[in-house]
Amino acid sequence: MTPTAWLRRPGVRLDVVAGIVDGILTALTITAAKILDGGGDVDLGLVARVSLAAGLTTVVAFFLAHYAQLRSGLNRAERQLNVLRHGRLANSDLGRKVLWEAIEGASVAAVCSVLGAFVPLIVAILLPSPPWLGCAASIAILGTLGGLLARSFEGSAAMWTVALALAGVAFTGIGAALRIAG
Asked: For the chain: N or C, fewer Cβ within 10 A?
């Protein structure tokens, strides 16, 4: 399967997009105050910690969501097939496939979340002046992602670009107000 075909699978697209968006919004929430205050204290250690935190929370949340959804599908199939003993499908090869599919989806989302958090913080380090450039880059990435996402399902690219960019602006404001790492 080619990478393009793999990315077109709806489940993979969800994991990639949600992971990137989650990583960027996590980075903005945690570091916006520090970046906007001058960005001088943004270093590789902070980039690593924020990226790791984004990836860890994403892997847990996505594994639970995927696994619960897939297992409920097995339970539904058991009811439709009138399987007398609950859990038969979960204990079969299908159950193991469901587990590995959940692990795969969560892993893809987590890697994308790490990258989503990593990129804007690296921009803040590489281009420290003006200080708001790291946040602006994050907002631009979100807007671009919104436009690409809209094209993938024939939605309004303009609406999705603006909506995700506004989400970035809102999370930058929230992060600046919360001052978690600032």
From this structure: N
Residues 110, 62: contact at Cβ < 8 Å? yes
Does the pLDDT at position 77 exceed 90?
no
Residues with Cβ within 8 Å of 157's Cβ and at least 6 positions away in sequence, in order, are 146, 147, 150, 151
Q: Is residue 108 helix, strand or coil? A: helix
Cα-atom radius of gyration of the chain, to the nearest Å? 19
The pLDDT of residue 57 is above 90: yes
Q: What is the mean pLDDT of residues 116-139?
A: 87
Q: How far apart are CA 158 and CA 173, in angstroms?
A: 22
**Closest C-alpha among 20, 21, 29, 44 to residue 122:** 44
Q: What is the pTM of this model?
A: 0.88
Q: What is the largest CA-CA distance in the chain?
A: 67
| Burial of 129 (C-beta count, 10 Å sphere; 0-12/13-18/19+) | exposed
SS3 145: helix
C-alpha to C-alpha distance for 65 and 73, rounded to whole angstroms:
12
Q: Please calculate the CA angle 55-106-109 and round it to the nearest 5 degrees.
A: 55
Q: Mark out the alpha helices in 37-153 (DSSP H runs).
A: 44-80, 93-126, 133-152
Residue 155 contacts by C-beta under 8 Å, 6 or more apart in sequence? 149
